[in-house]
Structures are given as structure tokens and as C-alpha cells.
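Fold this sequence, please.
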Amino acid sequence: MTPPEYEYLRKFLKDCSGLDLSADKQYLIESRLLPLARKVGLSGISELVQKIMGGSAAFNVQVVEAMTTNETFFFRDKIPFEHFRNLIMPQMLRSRANRKSVRIWCAAGSTGQEPYSLAMSLKEMGAALDGWRIEIVATDLSQEVLEKSRAGLYSQFEVQRGLPIQLLVKYFKQVGELWQINPDIRAMVQHRQFNLLHDFSQLGVFDLIFCRNVLIYFDQETKTNIFNRLAKALEPDGFLVLGAAETVIGLTTVFKPLIEQRGVYQPNEVRHAPVRTPAFAAITPKVAAMAGI
């Protein structure tokens, strides 16, 4: 790969996905894009760059997806899910008692372990959510990982990573050598392909946003822009949960960290008048019954 080809790919990936590669990441591009090039019959990176320049939208999507990191597992890092159970949902039960509805967005939801971890946590609340309408919207740039998330099929290795055995027995069934999460849990999660560089307004307004372990790949300007737009997509008393290596400090003042609640933030001030017009169909009574909510 020549230096001009690498610079072209760096700019292409940043413009399309926000991925900000440093000057020393040629090895990463080669390790992820050479297999794609060979898969479609190209001799190497040079031909791949020419194909991108040729304007094949479908192929360009494949290139971006090949570079996307989809590392995830159930109840990843544990602490955010403890905050969800012990801090966020108890407050939602109090503040949303009149309308009895909560909207949750899992941005960069990958293959589904995060949104399904939230869904199982909600299911474990039992009668506390009787009569409530819960929406969990999982988005990702990659259509491939969204399809895996919709199917809810995981290998033995994947269910052993972070998933308590009692929840595996309770919410999964074995399908051959795989494990599939039960239909009532899958019904609690809606999926949509979405790019974080695009307009958030089409998604509506949320009470809680999980946006974990994705912003670390963006430059500071892009992070600031996304934070400012996340604030507008969040209720004034809503919550934003970031990954352990992510922070708003030094990037924006639209969020404030919660003291002694690592990774949890709230809007710093009322920045919008929320209009609750979800972009997704509400959960029907039939689906709500299936989901136990």
C-alpha cells in the first residue's frame, strides 16, 4: 500500500464513518481490507482503492463494515448495568410514573449483547414494569451485525462471556451448537441501520442513551459534534452512559457527570423542548404481552 493510497483510505473512512486512523495504522487497514479484496477477486489494496473511487456504493459499505470493530459481550464492564438497575431505572419509575413509558437507544449496538443485556435486566424487574411501554432501539452502522442481533443466535463462547448462567438457562434455548435468546426478549429490541455522523432527529427523543466504546475511534471535533447532538436527542432529565475509556470532560459542556457514578452523564441544561414523536412504531399490546411489559 502506497502512502497516497493510505491517506485516501484514511479520509474515506473518516468521511463515511467517523473512524479516525492515525498515521501508523497501515497494518490495521491491510489486515482487515486484504481479506475483503481477495473475497471479491481483487489483487490487493491498490485495486480496492480504485474500486472505491469507481463509486460502487454497495462495495463502499463493505469496506466500511470490514473496518468496523464489533467487540462486545453480555453485561460488558458490569458497572454500567449496575447503574442501570440501581440508579437509572428506579429514577425512571418515579419520574415517568404518569406516562409509564421509557425509550432507550443503544447506539453502536453491534451483535446485540448490549441491548439484550438491558432487555433481560428489565425483564428481571418483573411486576415493577407492569403496564409500562418500553422501547429499546439498537442501531449500528453494519447491516451484517444487525442481522446477527435480530437472530439472537450466539456461540457457546459468546454466551460464556459475561452472561450469568442463571440468565442463560432462563432466557435462552439451545439450537444445535448455538444458543438463541427467547422470542419475548428479542421482541423487546428494535433494530435499525444508522450512522452516528447523520442527523439524530429521525430517531426521536430518548430517556436513556447507551453510547459505549464507539466514540474512542473518533477525533475530538467529531466527538464534540456527536455529544452536542446526543444532548438534543435526550430528555432534559435523561441519562447518557459512555464506555469506561470515554468522557465528555474537555470536549463539551452540554453534559455533566454524575458524582460517584462513573460513565453516567445528564444534560447540563434544558437544550430543547422534547416532542415525543418516536420514529419507530410503538410496541403493540401483543408484543408488550410477549415481552412481559
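The domain at 79-291 is CATH 3.40.50.150 (Rossmann fold). The chain has two domains: 3-67, 79-291.
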